[in-house]
Amino acid sequence: MADEALFEFLHMEMVAHVHRSSAKDEKDQCISTLEALGFRVGQSLIERFTRECSRFKDELDTMKFLCKDFWSSVYKKQIDNLRTNHQGVYVLQDNKFKFLVQMSTGKQYMECAPQYLAFPCGMIRGALSNLGVNCIVTAEVSAMPACKFQIQIQRT
């Protein structure tokens, strides 16, 4: 339980530090920096988590692993809902996302949500990248603390 609180505090402080260290008009740069940090963390974590796993047979299997095992290891719970259109778009829904729970008391924090979701988006993209899946990951918050991560697979 202590490690969960430490992870949350580290994330909050990381977001605050990146936000403080940039100019006021560089909001996009803050989000890019946090996403890049998350990308590297996601790459490293997935290496550790898949060390003793066999190869995934398809994209859907990879996403199921991400929603169950990866998410459970990082956030101590599984993704609440996984949807796909079977054409390369996956939506992962977390109804009580850990990083948004503390600030979910009202709508006044909705504009801050993207900066708190940039790191997790990067983690997802980094993990999938290391598994050979090139994608774009975006996050959307319609009601706090629930959020949806949309993964769009880039086919070449």
Can you give a write-up of this model?
Its main location: Golgi. This is Trafficking protein particle complex subunit 6b. It is found in: Golgi apparatus, cis-Golgi network. The chain has 156 residues and is an alpha+beta fold. 53% of the residues lie in helices and 15% in strands. The chain has five helices and four strands. Strand 1 and strand 2 (89-94) form a beta hairpin. It starts with a helix and ends with a strand. The model has no long low-confidence stretch (mean pLDDT 87).
In order across it, which strands form the biggest sheet? 1-2-4-3
Structural class: alpha+beta
Rounded mean pLDDT is: 87
Cα shape: globular
Distance between the ends: 43 Å
* Share of β-strand residues: 5-15%
Using the CA coordinates, give the radius of gyration. Answer: 15 Å
**Overall helicity:** 40-55%
* Overall number of strands: 4
Instruction: Describe the largest sheet.
Output: 4 strands, antiparallel
> What is the count of helical runs?
5
Low-confidence stretches are: none
Order of helices and strands: HHHEEHHEE
Feature tags:
alpha+beta; 156 residues; 53% helix; single chain
